Amino acid sequence: MEKYSTKWIKVSEPFPHVAHIELARGPVNAFSQEFWRSYGKVFDSLVADGVDVRAAVVSSAFPKIFTAGLDLGDAGNLGGDGADTTRDGARSSLAMRKMLLEFQHAIGAPERCPFPVIVATHSHVIGLGVDLISACDIRYAAADSKFAIKVRSPQLRTPLRMNAYVLEHWQEVDIGLAADIGSLAFLPHITGNHSLIRELAYTARSFSAAEAEKIGLLSKVVPGSRDEVVKEALELARVISTKSPIAVSGSKHLITHARDHSVPENLAYTGAWNAHALMTNDISENLHATKQKRKANFAPLKVPSRLDGPKL
């Protein structure tokens, strides 16, 4: 899987069928336009190429920070078209909307994958970092994780100035913009606590891993920092990778559908979905493996097709 690595993203396979995707844009994983496009492309390429990934883990390659969020020093992130007052406002807005939808599509790539994506955070998870983790299936955090729904200042660009005090006390330089890449869409569904999500969005205050777990944003808080939480997340991914890909991918799809639809709608959809899923060979393979006291050997999710012609 190493061939899917990019300039700022490391991709490895620590266990069979497990992808480890590490964010590695120094010094603080601030997302430029090239970085977020690359992030989305990694997931989309793994799926499009039919790589036999059955679980993935997203983490930071840096021991002292997960991400400082959006890099406002990158002109592409600021939307040059929308800021150009010499152009027609309506046309500039259309260009800005196109860029924002592409941005949302890239950060939301984990949700489109047929395999579960586990994110392992530590230290500071600022602004866009909350958008990013919200689009993942499972969220683990080290005990030292601190989250905030806000945007980093363009002035904070050197490692020396990215200290704990600045990260905790820059509300006075927050820009006047509502989060638009995923936090406000995902968090009310994830936590179910509209009151607190509104408080966090309106104030941009930081909140701890303990508070994030309490409201349901996290499923586990791991004592320690980066190494400890990544180890736990990779072990979870390893366990998931041993299960039936049909069962796991189907569960992911149906859970996401349930989030966006009523109970009756989801039950009807699940009936239609499982009408074909129950025809899988994974069921008999699992029964035979249990009877023979061996590990089940499941086929990859994607099977060759005559429709898969050569790429043009």
Could you explain the architecture of this structure?
The protein has 312 residues and is an alpha/beta fold. It contains 14 helices and 11 strands. Strands 1-2-4-6-8-11 form a 6-stranded mixed beta sheet, with helices on both faces. The two termini are 23 Å apart.
Name the features:
globular, 3-stranded mixed β-sheet, 6-stranded mixed β-sheet, single chain, 312 residues, 14 helices, alpha/beta, 14% strand
The share of residues in helices is: 40-55%
- State the major sheet: 6 strands, mixed
Specify Rg, calculated over alpha carbons.
Answer: 21 Å
Class from secondary-structure proportions: alpha/beta
Distance between the termini: 23 Å
Tally of separate helices: 14
Topology:
Layout: E1 9-15, E2 18-23, E3 30-31, H1 33-48, E4 55-60, E5 69-70, H2 75-78, H3 80-83, H4 89-107, H5 109-112, E6 117-121, E7 124-126, H6 128-134, E8 138-142, E9 146-148, H7 164-168, H8 183-191, H9 194-203, E10 207-208, H10 209-214, E11 220-222, H11 226-241, H12 245-260, H13 263-277, H14 282-291
Parallel strand pairs: 2-4, 3-5, 4-6, 6-8, 7-9, 8-11
Antiparallel strand pairs: 1-2, 9-10
Helix pairs in contact: 1-4, 6-8, 12-13
